[in-house]
Amino acid sequence: MIDILNEISLLLTDYVLVAVLLFAALFFTFKTSGVQFVLFGEMCRLLVKSGKKDNDRRSRETDGHHTISAFQAFMVSIASRVGTGNLAGVATAICIGGPGAIFWMWVIALFGAASAFVESTLAQLFKERGVKSFVGGPAYYILKGIGKRWWAVTFAVLITITFGLAFNSVQSNTIADAFSEAFDIPRWITGLVMTVLTLSIIWGGIQSIARFSEWIVPVMAVAYIGLAVFIIVVNFHEIPSILSLIVQDAFGASQAVGGTLGMAVSMGIKRGLFSNEAGEGSTPNVAATASVTHPVKQGLIQALGVFTDTLLICTCTAFIILCSGVYSAETSANGIVLTQQAIGSQLGSQQAGSIFISVAIFFFAFTSIVANYYYGETNLRFIRNSNWLINIYRLVVGAMVYAGAMAPLTFVWSFADITMALMTLCNVAALFVLGRYAMICLDDYRYQLRHGHDPVFYSDVIPELGKSISCWNEKS
User: Fold this and answer.
1) What is the DSSP letter of 165?
2) CA separation (Å) from 98 to 2, 175, 245?
């Protein structure tokens, strides 16, 4: 069964998905005139402002006190992005694709941020008022913008399986690996503890998840980046040679002749996508919940999330591994174990490295589990808003968290790659159909900025959509 999954995963992710994502990233970068580069300063300004709460009129026009700030939405999306892919995924990419895979991670992040901008802007544009907050995402913009319910339901089913089941099994598998390596804790015990913790948090819904992510994500990110900076400073003299190694391995003649150049590209893009989720259709689900005055605001903030995830945190992991000297083409260590060994070699104690990375991966991966759950819940409610169905789903998620802790590494990664590929292809097709609406929103945003206004969006900017964007009516 594992062999069959590996073959399917190879076909979908190494060929079809890589080509589609690169094309989409370049296409949307061109269509938006490089929005992720030109408006980078605006992204940072919006994030700082959203952290202080947006106090203008439109941002307060929500359902009573049930609001999710732009900053909270950003942190929930980062909670999902920053997880196993940043620690174990980077190590796996280096082991299989070589150091050159990191270069291709950077490429898909730099250009893929444009795809993230488009999908999150569309999620805001087509969002709806829910009971406790706004709701939206690809299923909503496919139904309301394209009018194809079968397409919308297909995506909703795929993302529920991908995030609630497949990705969460990867996260719990990595936590179990780390705790087994560091503390010799049996995998079944780790799985059981994670299951109980997961169920206790996800039963509180998006409000509980947002509060949890808002506090935990910044703390864990700062701690991990701080360690990475320490290791880089200590090994500062090696940075030029490491950068040279990454670039040479990405384009080197020896890699091309040996047939591993394609593996570097494939692993870099696959693991980069798993980590930053640009164009995947996941982050729009939480981007839609934010209370903002213009759809583009959340599009820009989520594009910044791609940079934060890959260019910052994934790069930290890569430099830790390559600075440590524990990596070689013949190394037997893989995934989170390689990252543990790398940190241990820098701290002068393998045990200290294992303990630190085990604690870090617990918070990184566990916040991903609870955020991933929310993506599935949102889409299940889109298919059928039934409390008993949601409760069953919560129990199944808990079961998959436990099962993932016990399953073989190759099985959970192949399963995740297949479902991720199908879901991403479904979403990217919708982006090509609806992307022009994101461009209209962007033009409107830029126009207002040029005239010195804090941009506010109203539905009459795109009159053809009518009631499909009812949340942006002037009287709403």
Assistant:
1) I
2) 24, 24, 10
Confidence (pLDDT) at 77: 65
Q: Is 143 exposed, middle or buried (0-12, 13-18, 19+ CB in 10 A)?
A: buried
DSSP state at residue 132: S
pLDDT band at 82 (very low <50, low <70, confident <90, very high): low
b/e map of 276-289 (b: 16 or more CB within 10 Å)?
Answer: bbbbbbbbbbbbbb
What per-residue confidence (pLDDT) applies to 54?
46
Percent of the chain with pLDDT over 90: 23
Distance CA 368, CA 170 (A): 10
Q: What is the pLDDT of residue 183?
A: 81
| CA–CA gap between residue 162 and residue 368 (Å, rounded) | 13
Q: Which residues pair with 129 in a beta bridge?
A: 134
Does residue 214 or residue 177 have the better pLDDT? 177
Round to whole Å and give the CA distance between 172 and 191.
Answer: 7
| Range of lowest pLDDT (121-130, 247-256, 356-365) | 247-256
pLDDT at 133 (0 to 100): 74
Q: 187: which residues sit within 8 A by CB, 6+ positions away?
A: 176, 180, 405, 406
- CA distances 227 to 46, 89, 182, 277, 363, Å, are 28, 19, 18, 25, 15
- In angstroms, the CA 29 to CA 108 distance is 11
CB distance 54 to 293 below 8 Å? yes
Q: How far apart are CA 154 and CA 166, in angstroms?
A: 16
pLDDT for residue 353: 64
DSSP, residue by residue, 435-456: HHHHHHHHHHHHHHHHTT----
Give the Cα separation of 67 and 291 in Å (integer): 7
Check whether 258 has a pLDDT greater than 60: no
By three-state DSSP, how is residue 83 classified? coil
Q: Output the CA torsion sign for 278, 280, 282, 286.
A: positive
Closest to 337 in 3D by CA, of 92, 157, 172, 140? 92
Helix residue spans in 184-204 (DSSP H): 187-202
Q: Which residues pair with 128 in a beta bridge?
A: 135
446 to each of 94, 454, 462, how far by Cα in Å?
40, 10, 16
* Mean pLDDT on 365-374: 79
